[in-house]
């Protein structure tokens, strides 16, 4: 009997999907995260945007084409948001939500046993109450590339464009002891671990521990360590020193969203462009070659042309090494969706202008790093080259052996990254 656990969305969802696969394998099932023909499918859904909901629903149809008789189970943020729409779909047997995905797997295993023996169907299960403390029962099997380590769940920020706090619940942190234990096991297999969560900047605020304390505790883990998306408020001298002293990559994904003070206020983001710029400058004082990436929403509701220009000016001042640029997408159920909307064609045009600026700054960053020596983790094959990333998150194309973490001298720009030559010591 074969299971597919197909995950949509963020790194947190991917981590939880891998944990579900591990749970199934521990019970004797063959399981994969690839969307291939199988007997049973678990769709681990995403609801960060309306488009994510649509793709989650469409996955049911894709599964039915692979196996019209398949038994289908649905969980995740989209079914937490609206379980009924999934329960009504042909072939779907159990609907869960975000919480306690290991118990969800146990219900599925029970359903499979009942179906095999007597054709019985389990009752639909709907989204359960969200926990107030971190559920520390997820144990994914780590791969030989990057190992995701979930350190936190939920969010207390309530940005006006985001529905996730309503679906994932309040912020709750995992214990440092538990995180270090998993990281040590992951380091036996993978050469890089990535700390992830819904809002990792809030780590420890609910437990009395601290993010800086976690970084120091992970210093003994023998793997390259990378941090996921951060709020600029966490950047302090103590935090940066802890990263530098404990084997963390010189890469910061600081989620900016807008470079306009007025738009940031409408978004309920709790910083100004000047404060954000100050944090970036502070990082570069200590780590001159640090990669600094971000997310920006173009055409947020009520955004004027002057405010868009403010964002362009802020981006020009910061000069990110890379950025994800998104035209704003309405999300039903959020405060932003009730504000006056910017015309979609204007959103697309503004996103294109920001993307053009992003591309210029990315090229500048690659040129700045040309001739430097960086640690590169080669992860996958791309034609004649093996491809991976430097510690400061530059994509490198190399002829060195794949699945290695070695020093390279960075040469000339190539495709979306740079060619690297392994240094033989």
Please describe what this structure looks like.
Among the domains are: 2-118, Methylthiotransferase, N-terminal domain (Rossmann fold); 370-422, Beta Barrel (OB fold (Dihydrolipoamide Acetyltransferase, E2P)). Helix content is 36%, strand content 23%. The chain contains 13 helices and 17 strands. It has helices at 11-26, 50-66, 77-81, 84-87, 101-118, 164-168, 176-186, 211-217, 237-245, 261-267, 273-286, 305-318, 344-369, and strands at residues 2-7, 30-32, 40-45, 71-76, 92-95, 146-153, 172-173, 192-197, 224-227, 251-253, 291-298, 322-327, 373-382, 385-390, 395-398, 405-414, 417-422. Strands 2-1-3-4-5 form a five-stranded parallel sheet, sandwiched between helices. Strands 13-14-15-17-16 form a five-stranded mixed β-barrel. The protein has a four-stranded mixed sheet with strand order 7-6-8-9. A hairpin with a 2-residue loop joins strand 13 (373-382) and strand 14 (385-390). The longest helix is centred in the C-terminal third of the chain and has 26 residues, at 344-369.
